[in-house]
Amino acid sequence: MVRGETGFWMGGRQAYAEAVQFVAPAPEPRSGPWPAVIRAVLDAMPGPAALLVPVRDPAGRLIDLEYVATTPGTVLGDGRLGRELIGTRMAEEFPGTAAGDRWAAYARVLETGEPTETGPFQHGEGRWRVRAHRVEGALLMTWERLDLSLEAGQRIASTERLGNLGWAEWDLVSGETRWSEQLYRIFERDPALGAMTPAQTDALVLPEDRPDRDLSLLALQRGDSVDVTFRVLLHGRVKHLRAVADVVRDTTGTPLRYFGIVQDVSALEQSAQRLADVESQLAEQGRSLAAEHALAARLQQVILPVPPEPLDLPGLKVAVRYLPASQEDLVGGDWYHAAAMSDGSVLLAVGDVAGHGTHAATTMAQLRYSLRALAVTTRDPAVLLGHLNRLLCDLSEESRNPETTATAIVARYDPVRRRLTWAQAGHPPPLLSRAGRTATLPRPSGPMLGVVENAVYEAAVLDLAFGDLLLCYTDGLVEHRRNGPDDGLASVIRSVDEAVAAAPGRPLGELLSRLRQANPDDDTCMLAVRPISDQTRDLRRYVLGR
């Protein structure tokens, strides 16, 4: 949905008026605070997205969708954007919508609650993909441009809409460097002084981050696109910046210009404040505790997407399963992380924030995103846990909530040596299945996060062999109201042994199929890891049951 691209589906307002021969009924009820809450969240999101409520005819058939909340970056072909769209209907602008396959897909999402993705499809001069999720009986829709042009004018407009990004251009022929207005704000520099030279910005990078920064510059000179996160020191304060850069060459291959987009990813505190405002708004409007947890569950699904298929990472096959508590009003702060790093290693993590509700979901997001940003500063999981502990202690002090605590496991896997270096902070021990026998790993020392301000964490080393299976989990897997943790752990160990015995060639899928009963008292997050070689069989179809 981009300015200037009218006729997204077909026809216009006149065709809509001719096609609808009766006064359409009102949309489904929009009372209660949840549309305002979603509106507050969308106000802080970049890119085009909107919440639309269904409009149905007397027989209950879906005939239209009405905008009730949008991001600032959502724009219709007639120039209306953001909150100007609230109260308008999709078929009024795009009367051919109801005749297309996408309309039937949206109806299925409203009926079943299962999200859908449509596209790619052509819209104007671009190709787009649309995702739709059901939220409180409405549709949360996001649009993604698949072929966004890199022309300077479009880049400037996009940067202005995003607000938290800035761009830079370095002309290698003239030596001139240009910055967008937002980049001056990120670097806290007076625009009257002009843009910094590359040498000046490099001088701000912290010494321990310069090796990764230098490698990215070498890659850029070779003609590769780069994506690197590093820290800079500005006026005595450290900022975490993410830079995505590309190079433009002439017909002979000679570099002419470097383009870069810089994002200040240290602004997670602002996101936390926005989520706190959402929680305050719920309280002011008299929402019940159950409604608050329902919102937290939806925020949790946005913040912590669980991959439907196993992840293929360097030297590892990783499967994730998330089991929400069987009581709908108990939404926890369980989280995971699994991603390849720029040095070829793999970063793995599982964590659990104490408590339930919006506060737990907010803290979970801060820990998860902070771990990814801090991972570029050190390879040592114990050091990373130390950083997360200081972050949680600071958050507890700022929020005046001394009960903000969490547990976590952080690991780094070297696929060349098949070596896992891991540390833990008051978290249940991982389970290792080797040669048909499963046992807990001895835990290196480390207190819970957020308890001791200057806590020190130790790391342990585990060499994995082909055929091993490692299971990391949160305490909801082993702790139940009717059984003690020892009984729950023994039951899980039996399940692992039985899964490996039943399917030694595909234990991940077998294991997760057995461990899928929700704990009524707490959420559960599981991360199952298996070392692989080039000859290891693809396990996706077993986890998916196909």
TrEMBL record:
Top-level division of the source organism's lineage: Bacteria
- Tell me which Gene3D superfamilies the record gives: 2.10.70.100, PAS domain, PPM-type phosphatase domain
Checking PROSITE patterns in the record gives: PAC
Q: InterPro entries, per this entry?
A: Bact_Sigma-Reg, PAS-assoc_C, PAS-like_dom_sf, PPM-type-like_dom_sf, PPM-type_phosphatase-like_dom
Keywords, in A-Z order: Hydrolase
* SMART domains per the UniProt record, alphabetical: PP2C_SIG
Q: Which GO terms describe its molecular function?
A: phosphatase activity
Give the matching Pfam families.
SpoIIE
Residue stretches making up the PAC domain? 224-277
- This chain's protein is named PAC domain-containing protein
Lineage of this protein's species? Answer: Bacteria, Bacillati, Actinomycetota, Actinomycetes, Micromonosporales
